[in-house]
UniProtKB/TrEMBL annotation:
Residues 1-23 form the signal peptide. The keyword Endoplasmic reticulum does not apply. GO terms for molecular function: FAD binding; oxidoreductase activity. Keywords: FAD, Flavoprotein, Oxidoreductase, Signal. It comes from Rhypophila decipiens. InterPro entries: BBE, FAD-bd_PCMH, FAD-bd_PCMH-like_sf, FAD-bd_PCMH_sub2, FAD-linked_Oxidoreductase, Oxid_FAD_bind_N. It comes from the Eukaryota. This is FAD-linked oxidoreductase YvdP. Its cofactor is FAD. PROSITE patterns: FAD_PCMH (PS51387). Residues 62-235 form the FAD-binding PCMH-type domain. Pfam families: BBE, FAD_binding_4. Belongs to the oxygen-dependent FAD-linked oxidoreductase family.
Amino acid sequence: MLRQIPLSALLLGLASILPTTVASPFDKAEALAECLSKSGVPTDSFESPDWKLDVSPFNLRLNYTPVGIVVPSNVQHIQDAVACAVRIGVKANAKCGGHSYGSFGLGGEDGHLTIEMDRMNKIILDNTTGIARVEGGARLGHVASELYNQGKRAVSHGTCPGVGVGGHALHGGYGMSSHTKGLALDWIVGATVVLANSTVVNCSKTENPDIFWAIRGAGSSIGIVTEFRFATFQVPDVVTIFVAPVNWRTEAAATIGFKAVQDFALNEMPAELNMRLFIAKAFTNLEGLFYGDKAGLQAALAPLMKKTNATLALAQQGDWLAQVKHFGNGVNVDQTHPYNYHETFYSSSLYTNELNETQMAAFVSYWFKHAKSNKRDWYVQIDLHGGKTSAVSKPDPAETAYAHRDYLFMYLFYDRVDKGVYPTEGFTTVGNFVKNVTNTLEDNSWGQYINYPDSRMDQETAQARYWGQHLPRLQAIKKQVDPDNLFHFPQGVLPA
Ligand SMILES: Cc1cc2nc3c(=O)[nH]c(=O)nc-3n(C[C@H](O)[C@H](O)[C@H](O)COP(=O)(O)OP(=O)(O)OC[C@H]3O[C@@H](n4cnc5c(N)ncnc54)[C@H](O)[C@@H]3O)c2cc1C
Ligand SMILES: *[C@@H]1O[C@H](CO)[C@@H](O)[C@H](O)[C@H]1NC(C)=O
Ligand SMILES: *[C@@H]1O[C@H](CO)[C@@H](O)[C@H](O)[C@H]1NC(C)=O
Ligand SMILES: *[C@@H]1O[C@H](CO)[C@@H](O)[C@H](O)[C@H]1NC(C)=O
Ligand SMILES: *[C@@H]1O[C@H](CO)[C@@H](O)[C@H](O)[C@H]1NC(C)=O
Ligand SMILES: *[C@@H]1O[C@H](CO)[C@@H](O)[C@H](O)[C@H]1NC(C)=O
Ligand SMILES: *[C@@H]1O[C@H](CO)[C@@H](O)[C@H](O)[C@H]1NC(C)=O
């Protein structure tokens, strides 16, 4: 048997006309199932209702078929599943909320073992230390609900209640509290991780500090986080959500308006304000969350309102859960299993610093001359991510593997269809938007966000864009903890 491997390698050139002799992961499905069964790891049986639910990613454009799906309910199950994947020779990935835009929870390609974490979603808040133990399969809405109910506390995180804490917090986690309170990963104080050799380790600032550093930015490439320890903050009694539409009819007006937003983010924006410029097909809004009451919000926004001609259409005081619900688009906040909401889309992203005139003109020009004629349901969300007053930019960039703290703006480009297949023409529309901007930027003066991935990038480019200056250290750690790249996916960190 073994001798056939080099032979088949010689025949690779003929593979397209000969019946394939290269082993497919699906040839190993039976052996894998047997190993898992012997170890007592719970699995979804092929095509069962649970299989269908668990195999279905948020982004239906990128469906992949795993070689098996395990549904662990404890750490030992995960260790055993990892051991079987290694023994049988298939790749393995954790899937938490399944919300990766590249379906990386399924491995981003066919034939991986999916470790479906979402049944492991317990959350226990220690009221005396303020530290929450959050299992690696919880969804953000469940985290927010539990922390609030158990002690009126919270972690900073993004907006969609169905997003998994696993993917979200291990790669960034930016939301409507981040300008005030930082990224989700800034609140991680420790974690329990199953490594590729199926050992389980804890990590923190003092225990396995390299692993602790690496999971805060690139966790999916390092191991499977079974539990997070999050520090938490006491939620403010009153917060104010707001929506302020702008009506920039011409490129000239949009340039003045966007420039005013940029100047505000650089110089005046109070730490208590969290805001994005949301550009959609039919409208453009300034929108966000203020830590404080309506009068405080109005005072904070006043200088910007004049310069942008924005009107404050909505400014509503409420409690913490009310804002979570608002930014979650009104869906039930406390999401667990089963979860079954999907879209069909293509996305890309960008981080930039302050744009100069040429660069801003490039953005606005593509927006008006090309994006506006895109008939699909598209948007560009520009988060006011960094800057002097932002909590995201406060920590030393070397403290975690998140490589983008210093950037002022974080852009999400999102283009979806309501039904049917996403058209290939969309790749050009979105891609050209990004390229028209990056074309005017110096090399190495911009980045991209793996939680808003561009699924069409090759692995080498993706690694550079997602991890920038941190890539060499990440690849060295990857070599130590996962030299054979068990936790592979097409845009993951490769071992040095
Ligand atoms: C509707 C929607 C709204 C969003 N809003 C925001 C937002 O406001 N801010 C923001 O920053 N992002 C946002 N995102 C992006 C989101 O943060 C990422 O898609 C995130 O990676 C999703 O995590 P997940 O666990 O749901 O995804 P999955 O597809 O399950 O996992 C994503 C990646 O993380 C890995 N992973 C998951 N769990 C673990 C674990 N326990 N241990 C190790 N690796 C793990 C997977 O293997 C995979 O590589 C949004 C996404 C959607 C779909
Ligand atoms: C934690 O504190 C809150 C607020 O003081 C209280 O309502 C809740 O019961 C406490 N929870 C636990 C588990 O002690
Ligand atoms: C990891 O830390 C948790 C919580 O402190 C503890 O219960 C567990 O035993 C530790 N595991 C290891 C492998 O050290
Ligand atoms: C705001 O309105 C004034 C008066 O109509 C106009 O001169 C200015 O260009 C507008 N600015 C923007 C950013 O729309
Ligand atoms: C903006 O910056 C780019 C890249 O450094 C440069 O090529 C361009 O000339 C600058 N434009 C202006 C108006 O300064
Ligand atoms: C900018 O967009 C236009 C219009 O879609 C496209 O023709 C051009 O190639 C793009 N520029 C770059 C550098 O990609
Ligand atoms: C598992 O991998 C870790 C990280 O490389 C290493 O420290 C540990 O010794 C390994 N354990 C075993 C049993 O090989």
